[in-house]
């Protein structure tokens, strides 16, 4: 996907457990009620986290051209953090 010239809005949460993954999804959905779930359930995202191949410590939700995506990141993959409140 060519990301040149694309606006990307992202929000992430620090995670250390499967429960953190569930809680971060709940907080995100409460904050962004326009988030459209395309059929993925929390348990599917938790399964993805459970099968991780890297030491992921962040779950990031990002919007590009009106579509939401979820990605797990390691500390090294996080480029910049802006604390909220």
Provide structural commentary.
- The protein is an alpha+beta fold.
- The chain has one domain.
- The protein has helices at residues 18-31, 42-50, and strands at 8-14, 58-64, 67-73.
- Helix 1 packs across helix 2.
User: What is the H/E order?
Assistant: EHHEE
Assembly of the depicted chains: single chain
Strand order of the largest sheet: 1-2-3
Q: Please report the distance between the alpha carbons of the first and last residues.
A: 33 Å
The tally of structural domains comes to 1
Strand content: 15-25%
Keywords:
single chain, 85 residues, alpha+beta, 2 helices, 3 strands, 27% helix, globular
Quick recap:
The chain is of the alpha+beta class and 85 residues long. The chain has two helices and three strands; from the N terminus they run βααββ. The model has no long low-confidence stretch (mean pLDDT 83).
């Amino acid at each position: 996907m060519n990301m040149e010239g694309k606006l990307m809005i992202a929000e992430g949460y620090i995670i250390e457990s499967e429960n953190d993954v569930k809680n971060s999804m709940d907080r995100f959905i409460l904050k962004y009620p326009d988030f459209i779930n395309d059929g993925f359930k929390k348990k599917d995202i938790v399964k993805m986290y459970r099968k991780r191949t890297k030491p992921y410590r962040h779950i990031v939700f990002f919007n590009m051209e009106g579509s939401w995506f979820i990605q797990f990141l390691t500390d090294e993959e996080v480029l910049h953090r802006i604390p909220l409140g």
